[in-house]
Amino acid sequence: MWFKRRNLITFILLTFFVYISMRLTEFDLTKFKDFRNMIDFLSQWFPMDYSKLPAMLQDTLETLAMAFLGSILGLLIALPFSFAAARNTAPSKLLFHSTRIGLSLVRSIPEIVFGLILLTTLGLGPFPAVLAIMFHNVGVLGKLVSELIEAADRGPQEAMKAVGAKNWIAYLFSVLPQIWPNVLSHYFYRFEVAIRTSLILGFIGGGGIGQRLFNDFKTFQYSSVSLDVFIIMLMVIAVDFFGSYVRNRVI
Q: What is the pTM of this model?
């Protein structure tokens, strides 16, 4: 009886929050009565304009490079912070709490905010976008990897310490091999997210296919916009399949 009452209360609260959210976001399905306008707009996207395809492919490679570099640098920087942010490997409580707070602060700032700040200093281009992705990934991957470290088996660590190994050596050779498959899994997920993020950063001058999409859309070149979107879809799908393949091979 108590279990059914709790489920009823949960359902009522969920319904209430859904209703409030719909009111705040002006959620109204009747607005789809002008659906034909969207069909007319999308009809302008075809046929695709392939005249700019070589330049688009170059921008696509730039986007992949931005996402890859920002993610891998974020992971490399996050790894040492992860050991300081894990309860079982932090040298002191002060360092543990300060590192946790620092990672939370970095993680709370969206990449586009980092991008806007860096663009004022470094100018337009992919370099500020790479740094923006890197900074945010340090906060995200630092937290994720620290949780993996806390869940690692303590047996190998204690065995290495028992034979005289220093703490950092014990952590490096006993903890990291345990968590590495999951670290790679988190990395490839963040890499996929970074691709989508780099597209948004392109809207503020970060370069890549995202900036080309924004420029084509702003200049009403809809036949080029359709090809931009198609290339982005293929890129995201290809990276998703590649990431799944690597995760399955490692895990």
A: 0.80
